[in-house]
């Protein structure tokens, strides 16, 4: 039996679309830090998923990432989960 998948997400507002790339990268790092604190690793095949909606003078956004529980020690040793395996990049 496989372990349950956990969803992590962040929602908010952005004033200018020129900030999308920078803010998306920052929020991805924050979510991955939250995952690791809980002993989880991002699942490579499942995201991240980013969506935006124009609200007139600003944009709403939602960033969603999915993770698998690996344990606190392994979540610090490995970078992500891919095709059923723990992966170290580099």
Question: What would you note in describing this structure?
Answer:
This protein has 90 residues and is α+β, with helices and mostly antiparallel strands. The protein has one domain (5-87). Helices cover 27% and strands 40% of the residues. The protein has helices at 20-37, 72-77, and strands at residues 5-14, 40-42, 49-54, 59-69, 80-82, 85-87. Strands 1, 2, 3 and 4 form a four-stranded antiparallel beta sheet that branches. The chain has a two-stranded antiparallel ribbon with strand order 5-6. Strand 5 and strand 6 (85-87) form a beta hairpin. The termini are far apart. The model has no long low-confidence stretch (mean pLDDT 93).
Which terms would index this structure?
90 residues, alpha+beta, four-stranded antiparallel sheet, 40% strand, elongated
H/E order of the elements?
EHEEEHEE
- Could you give a short account of the major beta sheet? 4 strands, antiparallel
* Tally of alpha and pi helices: 2
Q: Mean pLDDT, nearest integer? A: 93
Terminal CA distance: 30 Å
Number of DSSP-assigned strands = 6
Portion in beta strands:
35-45%
Number of domain modules: 1
Cα gyration radius (Å): 15 Å
Query: Which outline best applies?
Result: elongated
């Amino acid at each position: 039996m496989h372990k349950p998948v956990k969803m992590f997400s962040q929602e908010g507002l952005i004033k200018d679309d020129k900030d999308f790339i920078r803010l998306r990268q920052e929020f991805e790092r924050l979510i991955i830090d939250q995952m690791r604190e809980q002993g989880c690793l991002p699942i490579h095949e499942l995201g991240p998923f980013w969506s935006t909606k124009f609200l007139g003078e600003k944009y709403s956004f939602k960033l969603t990432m999915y993770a698998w529980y690996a344990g606190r020690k392994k979540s610090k040793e490995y970078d992500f989960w891919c095709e059923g395996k723990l992966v170290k990049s580099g």
